[in-house]
Amino acid sequence: MKEQKSDLPANIQIHIPSILRTGVTLPSSKSISNRALLISSLANEGKAPEEAVSKVHHISDCDDSAVMVQTVSHLEEMVNVGAAGTAMRFLTAYISTIPGCRTITGSARMLQRPIAPLVQALQDMGADISYMQQEGFPPLRINGCTLRGGRVEMRGNVSSQFISALLMIAPKLRQGLTLHLTGDIISRPYINMTLKMMADFGALAAWTAEDEIGVEPTGYVPREYDVESDWSASSYWFEMVAVSGDTDAEVTLRGLWQESMQGDAVVKDIFRSLGVSATFKNDGSLKLRKEGKPVDCFHYDFVNCPDLAQTIVVTCALLGTHFHLTGLQSLKIKETDRIEALKTELRKLGFVVTSKNDSELHWEGERCPVDKNPAIDTYEDHRMAMSFAPAAILFPGLVINNPRVVRKSYPHFWEEVFQVALSNPQQEKA
């Protein structure tokens, strides 16, 4: 079965066998797909929109990328991105450069996610954007026009998607772009991914200083582009191996590139401290095995890979590994407040995790009673669902509420999980 079911129940109950031996074909990278679609559209300006999409191969089949495909193929007066945060940021910048008046909106949660830093930067470059409801938040009314570009300042500790959105439209700005980032710069690998992909399409874009990026107004060159698989998605399989009681647990992951531009490829190094080895084989697959013992206490700064944080928090708790994790400030403005969501849901499993400064999580082994028949709420957040799924190894029959959220980045996740089970792989209601 390769198509994601649209009739998933309101909740599912997970059983994972004691013996873990499986192979998984990972989804294509949502981050790369969405960037490639936007850049290809700009590179093929003046041609049939479908041509730009057709040049990008192995596009992610997740909801977020489906929004990008639909919008760059058929740009309408009303653009509804749903819960796709990446699409909201990227398309806001993109639409501001396309002549015509349009509205961009999204889900109820999307209308609560701030977008003011991006809008202000675009307005500084000449964009005609207005807020339709609450100041600083979608929905937005955008009158597209040719932007002048020039020198713009933005805080470096905002979402890297704001920065990438500006960079990707910069080659078609009249004056190009000099982007000065103030303060701490977070998620730098995602910025570097954007710059690498822009260069792949012929743009002249690079760091000119530690805190400044320059983009020349040279436009893009059309090309064919292949999307690699998603290292972020691999993290849930690393977690499964780590917490499995099977000392010979083995998972083979297909589709990852050994020389990857994805910052989350660091997951293979992180999990080495948690007792999992990762080895690339001659056929290009990545084999995960248990190796050594997890550390007693784990410290890590997630400023460059925040999307891995939920996986690591849950893994450490399940292993009994104490932790102090920093660099989590962007988790407050994701699909949900991920810091509070993690604390709330881990308590259901008996773990009392505390936070500090809206950017740190730590745990020194504090416990509380486990809920009877625990059910994990997912807060419309795909990573909450997937990071807690492996907990079923220690909590058989664990319930995950609103499992549909995984469609945002990994549509076939539950299919893969239930294929691991020795029993019938069909999803069942709790």
List keywords for this structure.
430 residues, alpha/beta, 4-stranded mixed sheet, 21% strand, disordered N terminus, disordered C terminus
Would you mind describing this structure in some detail?
- This protein has 430 residues and is an alpha/beta fold.
- Helices cover 30% and strands 21% of the residues.
- It has 13 helices and 21 strands.
- It has helices at 30-43, 49-54, 63-73, 85-95, 116-124, 160-169, 188-200, 231-243, 267-270, 309-319, 338-348, 382-388, 413-420, and strands at residues 11-14, 21-25, 56-57, 78-80, 100-105, 128-131, 140-144, 150-155, 177-182, 205-209, 212-215, 225-226, 250-254, 276-280, 286-290, 297-301, 322-326, 354-356, 360-363, 375-376, 398-401.
- The strands form 6 sheets. Strands 2-13-15-14 form a 4-stranded mixed β-sheet.
- β4, α4 and β5 form a beta-alpha-beta unit.
- The longest helix is centred in the N-terminal third of the chain and has 14 residues, at 30-43.
- Mean pLDDT is 93; it is low at 1-5 and 422-430.
